[in-house]
Amino acid sequence: MKYFNKLPGFIKTPSGLEWILFKKIPHIFLIGTAVPCISMLTIYYGHDAISRDDQQVIYQLLGVLFSAWFFVGTLAIGCIIVILMKGPAYVADPYELPQENRRLEKLPHS
């Protein structure tokens, strides 16, 4: 039994925008992480005591940080799915269907 039987005659789809985005994901992740972190560190180390307004800004920056991470993760998963779907097609092993019982098909459905 051979695993991963490729479909004969299948033409692989050329890559497109998914590879361009997939290669830029580390840069997007670093920029999306660095901007809120630098702002938070500026607030932490720029003041002796953190006021309530500064604390609220820090919480909002944490929300931006986590949103950026979720966006990058979703983008990576989407790119991987498109890359996999554009790859070669595979054929599963044949499965023999059981014989139909015509007598059961004539019974009324309850």
Notes on the protein architecture:
By secondary structure, this protein is mostly helical. It has a domain at 15-88. Helix content is 62%, strand content 4%. The protein is built from 3 helices and 2 strands; from the N terminus they run βααβα. The chain has helices at residues 17-46, 52-85, 102-105; strands at 5-6, 90-91. It has a two-stranded antiparallel ribbon. α1 runs antiparallel to α2 (52-85). The longest helix is centred in the middle third of the chain and has 34 residues, at 52-85. It is elongated and about 85 Å long. The two termini are 43 Å apart. The model has no long low-confidence stretch (mean pLDDT 87).
How confident is the prediction overall: mean pLDDT? Answer: 87
- Biggest β-sheet strands, sense, barrel: 2 strands, antiparallel
SSE string, helices as H and strands as E: EHHEH
Helix content: 55-70%
First-to-last CA distance: 43 Å
Question: Proportion of β residues?
Answer: under 5%
Radius of gyration: 27 Å
SS class:
mainly alpha
Shape: elongated
Low-confidence stretches: none
The largest sheet has its strands arranged as 1-2
Separate helix tally = 3
Secondary structure: number of strands: 2
